[in-house]
Specification:
The protein is of the alpha+beta class. It folds into three domains: 105 residues, no CATH class; 75 residues, Helix Hairpins (Orthogonal Bundle), CATH 1.10.287; 149 residues, Heat Shock Protein 90. The chain contains twelve helices and eleven strands. Strand 10 and strand 11 form a beta hairpin. The chain starts with a helix and ends with a strand.
Amino acid sequence: GAFALVILVGVLVTVVLARQGAATQLSHFMMGNQMVRPGDLQDVLAEYYRREGSWQDADAYLDQLVLAASGGGMMGGMMGGMMGVWDSRIRVVDDTGRVVADSEGPPGGEVVPELMARGWPIEVGDQQVGTLLIDGALMTMTESQSASLLAGMTQAVLTAGLVAGLLALVLAVLLVRQITRPVNALSQTARRIAKGDLSARAPVNGEDELGELARVFNQMATALQMQESLRRRLMADIAHELRTPLSAIQGTVEAMEDGVFPLTPENLAPIREQTQMLARLVEDLRLLAHAEAGQLSLERQPVDLAELAAQQVKSLTPLAQQKGVRLELELVPDLGAIQGDAQRLGQVLGNLIRNGLAHTPAGGRVLVRVDDLGHQVRITVADTGEGIAPEDLPHIFDRFYRGDRARNRETGGSGLGLAIVKQLVEAHGGQITVESKAGQGAVFTVLLPRA
């Protein structure tokens, strides 16, 4: 409908403009070539007859008109635009057919009726008193002929416009089908995804904008499918993480109720440990939700990363000794301070160190190093563990992602630690990367701006 309306308006505008242009050009052509307007000459001759009452001396008057048309005499200004002096013959014939004026010789003789029928009548009142004959090379065009010519040109332009409009409409329909086909396919795919079928993909045809749109859409669908898979895994993992401590708490409480376990601090200690683990899991989820929503507040102040790293290494050394892993720290002198949240940065260091200890076997080593890069400070945590599989490396910082589900359950990981680290680092305007090969350990690198 919209295409048809645009085409119709375009055709009408074209016809109107073409007609106006043709009329203007025709007028200019007639004036530029000094074309005779027989109607004007008829009026002049009729006025002469009305004034004289006959055609007496009409031949001399016609000679004056011819001279005036060529620009001579006092009538040149009035007649110059009326007729051109070419090799043309102008004759005036009275009502009996006798020639009373001739621009190329003396009057006389008679004109056959057939020739008079092709002339222009000279009328005074309602009576025809003569006929104007123009022949030879003089170009003539009456008002009716001009109107007829313009009407013909308008009809031709209108016909051409309608044909062009019809062709344009056909092409528009084909073009719309070509455009709407992939759009409809994309819409159908979107509806399938909206209904929960995240495996649906839009067909990609060509390298144009629609093809690029389909590719981007499919990338989005793939990301949604992956996030949904991660969400399902998260639900399963959280259910597992919650089931174990809740079962332990429930069993201990029921044993105390049945009198199997006495209500002593030793028997209450496991309950306290399990509730602490549940509290940590809930806090991790809350922190990650706030960070991803951009609602994490940072209390920025000067932070000595060397001291902060030393504190984290000291606090986690007992865990490393328990696992039989060497935990080492390397610092550069005069590191200076950066602007940041000491608690959050401590959480970054703690999570990275715990991650390294969790995946490093006994006899291995976890090295923490802090370097000065001028406007930045670099924190490196390298371990000699089993490393990260290539297929897991691109997703290692995704929320809820756990490369080896069984292994992470053994180490107590919920898949939130590295996602939290990434969010906290980016909240400080920094960036984090990881390098690893399976069986060769992993190296996590954090770059933090000083200001």
